[in-house]
Amino acid sequence: MLWWERRRGVLLDGALALASAIECVVQSAVFAGRTGLPVVPTALFGGLAGSVLLVRRRWPLAVILVAIAVLPAQMGMGMAAVGLYTLATTEVPRRIIGVMASMVCAGTALVTFLLIEQDAGLREQPIPMWFKPFVAALFAVAITLPPVLLGMYVRARRRLVESLRDRADGLERELGLLAERAEERAEWARGEERRRIAREMHDVVAHRVSLMVVHAAALQAVAPKDPDKAAKNAGLVADMGRQALTELRTMLGVLRTEEKPREAAGAAGGEQESAADAAARLAEIAAAGRRGARGPRLSEVASLVDQSRAAGMAVELSVEGDPRGYAAQVESTAYRVVQEALTNVHKHAAGAAARVRLAHRDGEVAVQVLNEAPLGGGQPGAPAALPSGGNGLLGMRERVTALGGGFVSGPLDGGGFRVSAVIPDRDRSPAAPGVGLAS
């Protein structure tokens, strides 16, 4: 609707314009009677001048200029006050508001002074000379200053409201971004937890089951010829099965322990957890899983090597440096690297000799597992060939690099395979390029 945003603005401006027109008509009729001008044309002109207030929102300067123009006819003071208020609420520079207010104030003071001078009753009374200018100035200030101050207050309040609205919109956008990032972090935490569980399950199951398969194959081969050896192999298979079940129960027990508080909280609260809460909860589960399940230690590497020897593998273990206490994750990671490397030898290089080197250095521990070429050249159909999911080397690399260490693996010139890892004694920022032990 033209320059009005709301219908009530049209009604308000219409009412103000009508009141201003009536005022100007009455004052112009009085002015015409005092000066001898034709009443009807003067009244029509006054009504037209007063109705200019209808465009105060679009052209407030025009309203003030018209009010200043008709001030000598002793009318338009109300129109001038409304025009000044409207101008003060806009974004025009303050110096323009000051100039317009000064012009209205000066015109009003002059007209008021002339009216006092023309009053016969006041001329007959003994009043001081300063009284008339003082009253004229006081009246002019009373007409001019309040609307200007009120308009400036309204303008400042509008700016504050707009600023608060913009800030609220900005905060809403930031909260949306934070929610999206929290959801991304929660999804990342879920993925990390899934990968951690997958690595633990792989480490627990793959090595034990691989040895069980090797022993079972040996048991099948020697059962008819050597019952004592068969019984020994059967006992080894049973022991390894029990060890695998014990580790699985330990891991699943930790997960169930962390899941029960979550279910209890959900039943008590009955509210859907936020993305940030989910991320924090998953991080707590991961940390509790690492704390609750006691991981393997470097001191158990000798037992790991003995198990491979019992399965028929020729394994040589050498330890360099003085053993000392490392962080639990460091010892667990080094143990898992040796375990997975020996498991791969059982799978892909059945019967091949292997060497395990463990070096205790200043601030780090280095692990290397070398094996010779497999029996039968590693061709399909080789004895004791076992299935592989291809995740062992990837899991080892993830474990080592997560602690800021370096990991290298690959075939040797002589047909064997090498797995090397250097693990710092404490977490470091993004992993440096892997550097293994020298062959």
Automatic annotation (TrEMBL):
GO molecular function: ATP binding; phosphorelay sensor kinase activity; protein dimerization activity
Keyword list, A-Z: ATP-binding, Coiled coil, Kinase, Membrane, Nucleotide-binding, Phosphoprotein, Transferase, Transmembrane, Transmembrane helix, Two-component regulatory system
A cellular component annotation (GO) from this entry: membrane
Any coiled-coil regions, as ranges: 154-181
Pfam families linked: HisKA_3
Top EC category: transferase
CDD domains assigned: HATPase_UhpB-NarQ-NarX-like
Annotated Signal transduction histidine kinase subgroup 3 dimerisation and phosphoacceptor domain residues: 193-258
Catalysed conversion reaction: ATP + protein L-histidine = ADP + protein N-phospho-L-histidine
Classification via Gene3D superfamilies: 1.20.5.1930, Histidine kinase-like ATPase, C-terminal domain
EC number(s) from the headed UniProt entry: 2.7.13.3
Superkingdom: Bacteria
Segments crossing the lipid bilayer: 38-55, 62-84, 96-117, 129-154
PANTHER family: NITRATE/NITRITE SENSOR PROTEIN NARX-RELATED, NITRATE_NITRITE SENSOR PROTEIN NARQ
Name of the protein described by the UniProt record: histidine kinase
